[in-house]
Amino acid sequence: KLEYLVHWKGYPREEREWLSASELRNAPQAIADFHHKHPAAPRPMPTMRLRFQALENLTVPT
């Protein structure tokens, strides 16, 4: 589960909290800015791009 450490503006560092990517859906620009500054940081995996293909059973009964 991907989480971001959020620093709230106007609050002390002690008020930072970890929030999941799904909890930050209303902050796409903040997420984009973060990834622009930290390109090697993990990103959410777009599930719509995943394609599953059924595999044939290649075992031969003996």
What does it look like?
Residues 1-46 form the Chromo domain. One of its GO terms (biological process) is chromatin remodeling. InterPro entries: Chromo-like_dom_sf, Chromo/chromo_shadow_dom, Chromo_domain. The structure is a single chain. It is built from 1 helix and 2 strands; from the N terminus they run E-E-H. Helices cover 16% and strands 13% of the residues. The chain has one domain. It is of the alpha+beta class. A two-stranded antiparallel sheet has the order 1-2.
Secondary structure: elements and pairs:
Blueprint: E1 3-6, E2 17-20, H1 28-37
Antiparallel strand pairs: 1-2
Quick synopsis:
One of its GO terms (biological process) is chromatin remodeling. The chain is built from one helix and two strands, in the order E-E-H. By secondary structure, the chain is an alpha+beta fold.
Any key phrases for this structure?
62 residues; alpha+beta; two-stranded antiparallel ribbon; 2 strands; 16% helix; elongated
Contiguous runs where pLDDT drops below 50 for at least 5 residues:
none
Number of separate strands: 2
Helix content: 10-25%
Shape field: elongated
Radius of gyration, in Å, reads: 19 Å
Spatial gap, N to C terminus: 43 Å
Total number of distinct structural domains: 1
* Tally of helical segments: 1
Q: H/E order of the elements?
A: EEH
